[in-house]
């Protein structure tokens, strides 16, 4: 389950959405967890120097402006080629049923019972051998549940029915569905259809032939969270949509391949961006990966786009990699439910996610079965 970020180049402003879903202009030097801003200190664009003349400043500004314009033109051309795929009816919210009960004997995460969105924990999730064993168990269960959820995807099936089946499988295994009650999220799984980037709330809408749907499963088992997601086809899907889904999964896999003890986190965003750009797809910046373990969302924040953020991976650490690719705009609009995030232009989006364990020589994918 992705976190929300507004990180970006410090010199620019970007269109974001406020917590109630209304568009607003905001500075790109802030980070937020589902709408709660955190102030960050970012480096200035260039050093302050008395000898730095006004003339040189103007030349520098013009060069930067020219670079911005070139990047804008390139992106617009990419959108003209890729962004024409889906112009069907926009996604509409259906009826959301009441949240499902969880038996009292099943241990629950500490945030359950409060509608306040938890803060991002500052500590990294680094485990000893016992913790790793428990992470493997939670992640293996999450992977099995996700595989099962995928078998339910077909035309006429509602996302609410998927949620109900997933919920039952999780509690039958003695686990708790982590999204349920997280910051007042009303369901046990996230179901994001077509232009929905992430955090879609299951409802009464029936899946249609040609849809794509990301199902995001997180379980809390024996005090540890396992987090994973995948985008599935519903019925007969167009070649263009299939390619978006294929490249999104490849981006995740290529990012995992660069992970190991001592590797810089920024390599993840570089590798994802390089691959996505080959096909003209956008990489969403607003939503990020995160540390996961005994805490659902913690540091480090995993940026999926090119960045110069510091920090290196540590052996025994667990976190998620979960890039979202789009055929068009990478900006989003948040619905009034404060969760559902859809692409600003209605273009399709696809996402894949794994929880990984950093080892001395690489990364172990934990969310497999």
Automatic annotation (TrEMBL):
<dbReference type="GO" id="GO:0070006">
    <property type="term" value="F:metalloaminopeptidase activity"/>
</dbReference>
<keyword id="KW-0031">Aminopeptidase</keyword>
<feature type="domain" description="Peptidase M24">
    <location>
        <begin position="134"/>
        <end position="359"/>
    </location>
</feature>
<dbReference type="Pfam" id="PF00557">
    <property type="entry name" value="Peptidase_M24"/>
</dbReference>
<feature type="binding site">
    <location>
        <position position="227"/>
    </location>
    <ligand>
        <name>a divalent metal cation 2</name>
    </ligand>
</feature>
<dbReference type="GO" id="GO:0009507">
    <property type="term" value="C:chloroplast"/>
</dbReference>
<keyword id="KW-0809">Transit peptide</keyword>
<feature type="binding site">
    <location>
        <position position="353"/>
    </location>
    <ligand>
        <name>a divalent metal cation 1</name>
    </ligand>
</feature>
<feature type="binding site">
    <location>
        <position position="353"/>
    </location>
    <ligand>
        <name>a divalent metal cation 2</name>
    </ligand>
</feature>
<dbReference type="GO" id="GO:0046872">
    <property type="term" value="F:metal ion binding"/>
</dbReference>
<comment type="similarity">
    <text>Belongs to the peptidase M24A family. Methionine aminopeptidase type 1 subfamily.</text>
</comment>
<keyword id="KW-0645">Protease</keyword>
<feature type="binding site">
    <location>
        <position position="216"/>
    </location>
    <ligand>
        <name>a divalent metal cation 1</name>
    </ligand>
</feature>
<keyword id="KW-0479">Metal-binding</keyword>
<protein>
    <recommendedName>
        <fullName>Methionine aminopeptidase</fullName>
        <ecNumber>3.4.11.18</ecNumber>
    </recommendedName>
</protein>
<dbReference type="GO" id="GO:0006508">
    <property type="term" value="P:proteolysis"/>
</dbReference>
<dbReference type="InterPro" id="IPR001714">
    <property type="entry name" value="Pept_M24_MAP"/>
</dbReference>
<feature type="binding site">
    <location>
        <position position="199"/>
    </location>
    <ligand>
        <name>substrate</name>
    </ligand>
</feature>
<feature type="binding site">
    <location>
        <position position="297"/>
    </location>
    <ligand>
        <name>substrate</name>
    </ligand>
</feature>
<dbReference type="InterPro" id="IPR002467">
    <property type="entry name" value="Pept_M24A_MAP1"/>
</dbReference>
<feature type="binding site">
    <location>
        <position position="322"/>
    </location>
    <ligand>
        <name>a divalent metal cation 2</name>
    </ligand>
</feature>
<feature type="region of interest" description="Disordered">
    <location>
        <begin position="84"/>
        <end position="104"/>
    </location>
</feature>
<dbReference type="GO" id="GO:0004239">
    <property type="term" value="F:initiator methionyl aminopeptidase activity"/>
</dbReference>
<feature type="binding site">
    <location>
        <position position="227"/>
    </location>
    <ligand>
        <name>a divalent metal cation 1</name>
    </ligand>
</feature>
<dbReference type="InterPro" id="IPR000994">
    <property type="entry name" value="Pept_M24"/>
</dbReference>
<keyword id="KW-0378">Hydrolase</keyword>
<dbReference type="InterPro" id="IPR036005">
    <property type="entry name" value="Creatinase/aminopeptidase-like"/>
</dbReference>
<feature type="binding site">
    <location>
        <position position="290"/>
    </location>
    <ligand>
        <name>a divalent metal cation 2</name>
    </ligand>
</feature>
<comment type="function">
    <text>Cotranslationally removes the N-terminal methionine from nascent proteins. The N-terminal methionine is often cleaved when the second residue in the primary sequence is small and uncharged (Met-Ala-, Cys, Gly, Pro, Ser, Thr, or Val).</text>
</comment>
